[in-house]
Amino acid sequence: SVKHVGLDLRTPVFTHGQLYVAVSRVTSVHNIKAITDPRDDFTLPLRTKNIVYPEVLQILN
How many domains does the chain have? Predict the structure, then answer.
């Protein structure tokens, strides 16, 4: 566990599950800070892409 987490979400996360791991390790939701692209429309809730490529998963199976 970590006390504080900082996330750079100006670009999508680079691997499936990366965002989950980052936010699941922090001890309090109040200790998560995120940088987003200022060109994005700032509306709540904030969202980021979590892209999964099924073709890659098929190759691994």
Answer: 1
Give the residue-averaged pLDDT of 46-50.
70
For 37, the domain range is: 5-60
Give the phi and the psi of residue 35 in degrees, each rounded to 5: -100, 130
How many residues are there in the chain? 61
pTM listed for this prediction: 0.59
How far apart (Å, rounded) are the C-alpha atoms in residues 24 and 21? Answer: 5
Q: What percent of the chain has pLDDT over 70?
A: 84
Distance of CA 42 to the CA centre of its chain: 16
